[in-house]
Predict the structure.
Amino acid sequence: MPVLQSKWMEKAFCGARRAAERGEVPIGCVIIAGGEMLAAAGNRVLELKDPTAHAELLAIRAACEKTGNERLSDCDLYVTLEPCPMCAQAISFARIRRVYYAAPDPKGGGVDHGPRIYAQPTCHHRPDVYGGLGEEQSTQLLRDFFAERR
Amino acid sequence: MPVLQSKWMEKAFCGARRAAERGEVPIGCVIIAGGEMLAAAGNRVLELKDPTAHAELLAIRAACEKTGNERLSDCDLYVTLEPCPMCAQAISFARIRRVYYAAPDPKGGGVDHGPRIYAQPTCHHRPDVYGGLGEEQSTQLLRDFFAERR
């Protein structure tokens, strides 16, 4: 994995670890534009009592607020787990250029599993997707989190 | 269409018309629990500069805030257009019981078209879906809106 990708994915993992500390499913996300971090977020479903408060949706909303634009055309998104169908579609609506994810999610993912949102003929914008960039770290974080809860 | 369904769908259409007045794509949504309107919203993508500000997502977030719960298990959702994949998945995450939509959306829908979110084996909660309840009114509203913009 090239240095830059690794750096941003590490930032996404920071968000995931902070989410775990809050008792949330440990998933983190950052959005990058022009070599700068535009937004960072972790999962906050329980804290906000909002089923849509996934890391990616929060990061997209924060990035759009910051830029004053509902499109993030030159932005790249890094997330520690394969986006779910909701987030995958939101990424498409936001016109995000590239998606880097750490671990695949065969049970809940919507990019390379399940509905494969970007493979649908009705999908208008398909980001470039790079998966599996830090699979072990992501899986371990989720495994530890759910093991503690059993 | 039974009287109650018609009443709530009419409320959803009010939200759609108000969205059109704001220059937004005219889609409206209400969430009902125990015969009461828990939340109502229209599309606000442009106003909020937020690509996730679809009527359904805004209504879900408002209803969850009102109830203090990230699950809306006994709630029904009425919307003037077939939900997109993002909203369809959010409806599933929110555990909404029934979805009533006015017009089908072959180009952008995610319930009975495209990825058919609830037909995916990986989908954990499938609401009961009733489509086509007011198709003509919804289609006309959208047609007028886009005709004005041409």
Remarks:
- The interface with chain B takes residues 45-46, 48-52, 57, 60-61, 64-65, 68-71, 84-90, 93-95, 106-110, 113-117, 120-123 of chain A (CB under 8 Å).
- The two ends of chain A are 34 Å apart (CA to CA).
- Chain A has a mean pLDDT of 95.
